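#struct-pred
JK: can someone run the complex with beta-D-glucopyranose? inputs below
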Amino acid sequence: MEVLGIDIGGSGIKGATVDTVAGVLTRERLRVPTPRPAVPGAVARAVREIAEHFSWTGPMGVAFPGVVRDGIVGTAANMDPSWIGVRGAELFGGQAVVLNDADAAGLAEMTFGAGRDRRGVVLVLTFGTGIGSALFVDGVLVPNTEFGHIEIRGKDAERRASDRVREEKDLSWKKWARRVEEYLGRMRDLLSPSLIVIGGGVSKKVDRFLPYVDLGDTPVVPAALRNEAGIIGAAMAAAGAVRVP
Ligand code: BGC
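RT: done, structure tokens with the ligand placed:
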């Protein structure tokens, strides 16, 4: 089935049509900058622009960087607070399915990417403007886990170890990798996952920092679908190809 997938991020909104059975983009993705302030009306216009670019009127999956329960936005740490309480289908149109961005990326990775056929506890973490998390138990998603907000050294983890912090503080990859390793170590201690998958904007540059990350016998691998996982997972959710609890 072909579905439009949209991934709303802190700096860019990305979209493409997706073959949800093969897990691939069917057309080249389009990226538009996230409007400032990132209020619902402005973001909805940007999403409409993407849909028009693809001449799309069918089902659409939208990955949003906050808690989304039953299609209703619950948090918006890196977006405008006016998002809280917004009903996705009302804002984006009745055919839109809205879910958390890291959950979307995780669903795609578990079906087509680095987590394929992996049983047990698998943790997918996305590093971008924030840190997103998707937790799977025997392939089933535990939605809206929000592990980017655990406390590390008295701070929200994503305020120490997101890719945005690396850029803003101009940290070397090695220095940033130490922060990431500390964060991943905490997640390993809390959840004992059998695999950790690293996705998000930074997944294109894993060679720069993953060699400095050592979690002992817990494997840490890059997302196979890189930063396209969110688009693909959002489309899969709208196609009903995955179960979003
Ligand atoms: C949000 C999460 C989101 C993550 C990545 C965090 O700030 O709270 O819901 O998944 O950023 O965008």
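RT: quick notes.
The helical segments are 40-53, 88-92, 101-112, 158-161, 163-168, 173-191, 206-209, 229-239.
The chain has a mean pLDDT of 96.
JK: thanks, will look after standup
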